[in-house]
Design goal:
- There is one protein chain.
- The two termini are 31 Å apart.
- This protein has helices at 18-21, 31-39, 51-62, 76-85, 104-109, 112-115, 131-138, 150-156, 161-164, 187-192, 209-216, 227-237, 260-267; strands at residues 4-5, 8-12, 46-47, 49-50, 66-71, 92-97, 120-124, 127-128, 139-140, 143-149, 169-172, 178-182, 198-206, 242-247, 252-253.
- It is an alpha/beta fold and 274 residues long.
- A hairpin with a 1-residue loop joins β3 and β4.
- The protein is globular.
- The strands form five sheets. The chain has a seven-stranded mixed β-sheet with strand order 6-5-2-7-13-10-14.
Length: 274
């Protein structure tokens, strides 16, 4: 398969933001942060600038040109912000609407008309990925997943160690390709995996074949269509190989109100230019 450089990105920004909306007596937010947190719009939480501004800047620095934000029908604030208040200079922003919050695979499927027949990067809107990882995911052959070394995430990131150790762990085969993503693996399974442990932070390079996989899977036990299930279907039934891009740098996470100040401190001083 020839080397391909991708330019398109799909960002999942449809989430309900349940944990961000939840009040926390230990966290005091600035008024503008409180207003956005109450709406659950994690992507627009101001941490100097709105969090998504930093995500888009990292993508522009890594060389991507076209970004599709998967949003809810009512997410007019995101459209208004990037259309009127802070329009992009280096990238072009498109939108896809996920009508109901039916999971990450359903969100990816909503962007099919944007992707068309191109390979693309898929990331979360509430994670800030290192530019190094985004650059490495741009070039390759076929599908891939960026994996982040667990202890580096604990040592250098903003996520508490107990949370990081609950994240999904990748199991790789003898050729270094992804075998499966292990969600909440049992202690004995973890003990059997080689060290270091590599965790998935939902940073994927997909070929358009992922859309067939998204259509073929059923709902998970929690009633959602999960992108990890679609990936597993693609591996098991469509013969898709997912290369692994191993990264020893942290991903910043903006899930709850407790994350806002640590993320703001780590992003302080970073220029915004997307």
């Amino acid at each position: 398969m020839p080397l391909e450089v991708i330019e398109k990105v799909v960002i999942l920004a449809r989430g309900l933001g349940t944990r961000m909306r939840r009040q926390d007596a230990d966290v005091v937010l600035a008024p503008e942060q409180e207003a956005i947190a109450q709406q659950g719009l994690k992507a627009l939480v101001p941490v100097g600038r709105p969090f998504l501004d930093y995500v888009l800047t990292a993508l522009a620095e890594a060389g991507y040109r076209f970004v599709c934000l998967v949003v809810a029908p009512e997410h007019t604030a995101i459209r208004d912000y990037y259309t009127r208040q802070a329009p992009p200079r280096r990238i072009q922003i498109y939108y896809a609407v996920q009508q109901e919050p039916r999971g990450t695979a359903d969100a990816v499927a909503a962007a099919e008309s944007f992707v068309q027949q191109d390979s693309f990067l898929m990331i979360n809107s509430d994670n800030y990925y290192p530019v190094e990882a985004l650059r490495r995911m741009r070039e390759g052959t076929g599908s891939a997943v960026a994996l982040f070394e667990q202890e580096t995430m604990i040592r250098l990131g903003n996520i508490p160690a107990d949370r990081v150790r609950q994240f999904a762990v990748a199991q790789m085969n003898g050729t270094g390709c992804l075998n499966r993503i292990l969600e909440k693996p049992a202690p004995e399974t973890l003990a059997s995996l080689p060290r270091p442990l590599w965790i998935s932070m939902n940073c994927w390079r997909f070929r358009p074949t992922i859309f067939e996989a998204c259509r073929r899977i059923g709902p998970s036990p929690r009633g959602e269509y999960e992108i990890t299930d679609a990936v597993q279907y693609a591996i098991d039934h469509l013969g898709e190989r997912f290369q692994t891009v191993l990264v020893q740098a942290p991903v910043l996470d903006l899930t709850s109100r407790k994350d806002i100040l640590p993320v703001q401190q780590r992003l302080a001083g970073l220029p915004v230019d997307y």
